[in-house]
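Subgroup meeting minutes
Present: P.N., E.W., G.H.
Scribe: E.W.

1. P.N. recapped why we're keeping a running log of single-chain structure predictions: easier to compare across weeks, and new members can see raw inputs and outputs side by side.
2. G.H. added today's entry (332 aa).
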Amino acid sequence: MSWPGWWQQTRAWPTRLLSPLGRAVCSIARQRRRQFEQAFMPTLPTAVIVVVGNVTVGGSGKTPLIMRLGEALAQAGIAYGIVSRGYGGKAADYPLAVRADCDPGVCGDEPCLLARRLGVPVVVAPQRMAAVAHLLQTHPQVQVILSDDGLQHFALPRDLAVVVADGQRGFGNGHCLPAGPLREPLAVLDTVDFRLCNGVSEDPRLVDWPVMRLQPQYWVNPQGEQQPLTAFCNRPVNALAGIGNPQRFFDQLVALGIRPLRTWALPDHAAPALIEKTVAEGGIWLMTEKDAIKCPDRDNVWALVVRPQLPSAWLNAWLDAVKTRLKVKYES
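Output recorded in log:
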């Protein structure tokens, strides 16, 4: 869902007009969460489930964070897999096991990227418990399951919940949809186990949060050829971004000394046909990895590979929490 500018303004007329609906959405979300917490007691599977989500619509850096957490698990010798809703994909049947060569138009762009980058089991399904069950049935060695999004998917039990917020946008005007960007009231933040802010934020509600920084690494094209970060400085290039916050990517380019001739902000999870139509105009196109996997045959496309930098104390605390829950689960 796009993020209109007035979501950053508490007194904008659309906010005032829609605030009754926003209060209703907040109330319904609060009631749903309370009902599941009190009445819905799902049986946790043998694996530890970690939900990585956010409380606002749009991207906040969940997928890069999933990659970094996966790396930490692998380095610790912990077998893991990933489940996702597979937003943007149109598979004929679910659950769907995502292979590295999966068409992102079928499985979704983020699951496709995760499968290619990490080489671990990835399963998508609108009902995430179905994805979890399928993953554990086909890969019983998996000890930890990372859920890409799903904080508001209450039917999915979780051992740990991680919330990541977009530092640029913060929590906007603090209203629930459609008056603002919140999926549910901010009170839910008191119930999660770990918090992260994607980039330094001026939002007073985020100033004390640990900061995650997306550190650019290099450029890569669909054929796997790599170029250094300076490769496109002072060159005529174009840029597009079909992510939750396209401006974050465009700001990264400026920070790298790259000033595109044109920038195209596409909808999050933009359809492959839309990206293909855009880059077919010719010239060099710079984009995110999530966008680049949708045009695998183009030689004029270059994706920026980023790696999240996390505070070491935060990452160690998260990994210790996972190990503690693994110990409890396997002892029981």
